[in-house]
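Review box. Two proteins, two foldings.
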Amino acid sequence: MRRVVVTGLGAVTPVGNTTEETWNNLVKGKNGIGPITRFDSSNLKVHLAGEVKGFDPLQYFSKSELRKNDLFIQYAIAAAEQALHDSDIQGKIEPERLGIYVGSGIGGISTTLQNYKKLLQGKHVSPYMVPNMIVNMAAGAISIRFGAKGPCVPIVTACSTSTNTIGEAFHCIQHGDADAVIAGGSEAAVNDLTIAGFSSCMALSSNPDPQTVCRPFDKNRDGFVLGEGAAILILEEYEHARARGANIYGEVLGYANTSDAYHITAPQPEAEGITRCINLAMQEAGVKADSHTYVNAHGTSTVLNDKTETRAFKQAFGEETARQIKISSTKSMMGHLLGATGAVEAIVCLKAIQTGIIPPTIGLKEPDPECDLDYTPLKAVSMDVETALSTSMGFGGHNGCLVFGKVKEA
């Protein structure tokens, strides 16, 4: 199998419009969750979200292009442009060998909602509605914008989406179907319909305090916070990257995905599916967890997710080892970016390997007795990170796990 490394990063998130801004604010424990400004939420139970702030689409699009691209596509293009610039791979790879694996959990739902309201009012529905609403269009738009003619695969697995896009891109390069892949996810679903829907299925916290609304692994947690944004990674075959002198953030060592086959929203109580997923990813990576392992947990701040994930870590690593590793949930600062969350958290894993800094789980003041591992409460810590795992758990029972490590010479 060919080795796969990461040579470029791009991000647009609730705590920053670039990778470095996002990372620096996560390390500082900055909270990107606040009052909803995108629409009037006064008639809803939920009034907080992790919105992207200060994003200027005119850095990436002409004015005439904006109406042709839903916000989730705009975020995806912005993050992809950042990642490609960071990687400096354009012009150094055959277009047919550059793939795109970019997904979304919900796609252009805001465009769909806006046009449905126009229809009810007897107004003209945009001819761009269908291209803007379909989930594959972020991948398609990236392919068109940057001339990438290799495999182009969008994935939709709810909250596991971009963990799966990165993992499948990893296997695509391993198996020789591409030399590099633009991989990640994008989401822009902060609107009244989405908030109302998630609220109705009892998934969102209605806590009005931005500082305590998202507190993964805390005994007082009561639901997740909807976030938005995009994250893109450039995955590249190791020898190809080395031959062109690329900067390498880390190596993708392992990946797995499993299904709970249990419930449309709730995780399997014994954590069988996510435990097996972690074990399979670690097995492919050929590594074992130890005191130099960091885990960016799915950590949604829901009662069921956090205790199930804690159980999975103990079962996958062994309880003694699970207590030695550092774990954190960066959703505590950004909210849940749905289809983009796995890619953001993959970037966090790579930056932790690069810098030796573990970002904190803010808001974690009273740990749930059932969530009794080291979840890095309140403040970042330093640690020599050799391997880092990112775990994801999506509605429908979708589980995903990625394993990253420092690059070692063959």
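Next protein.
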Amino acid sequence: MKPDYKNWMPKGMVFGFLAATGVALLMSLVFGMAGFIGKILLVIGIFLAIITIWMFLMYRAFSYNGSRQMSKQIIEGVSSYVKIPDGGKGLDVGCGSGALTIACAKKNPHAQMVGIDRWGKEYASFSKTLCESNAKAEGATNVSFDQGDATKLEFEEETFDAVTSNYVYHNIPSRDRQAILLETLRTLKKGGTFAIHDIMSKSKYGDMQSFAQKLKDMGYEDVKLIDTTSGMFMSKFEATWMGLSGSTILMGRK
């Protein structure tokens, strides 16, 4: 039995745009490309074709079975920063298919990992059942999964020895994603560590340098912002065409 971590670019979405492209181009032929409607449909078809090609390239890059395996590289990289003492407990916010939760659990075999997610319809192929199946396939028995909301975690303050997340918060509609970070860090024990990877561009997160200083002023230690687009997980070129510019790990200790 092998784990199935799916793909960050859902296959159904790729095929959906491919089908839409085909319909638009076919209808442009039906109406005649010389006519106004035909020309509009042709433009729409070409536009959809470009998006479809981009999605296909993203799917190939993120595939766990492909040659690039960017998703796997990122998961292994982020999990390497998650350190949990024996007998401790860690939290992965927005666990998706369970990849990061399980990777952290395997790297900290004498601790427990909890993965939470809302498992929304936009990622319908991800579920609690899938996470549990992947944990079983990986032989990770020190892990559990439950439904949760990143903006309002149902955990007391200072519950976990480590908290982590990967490419989650930028997907949450919010004017203040720094507040979501603070909600996650609220659950961290004194002395606990955090490693949160996301697209922390100014347009999505505001001034993260100021936020890192704010954490230091609050008593957090070893706070760092690590750019992951300069060869760590991807090149600048990859980050640009994939829409991942600004990818950064926020890490430190409470």
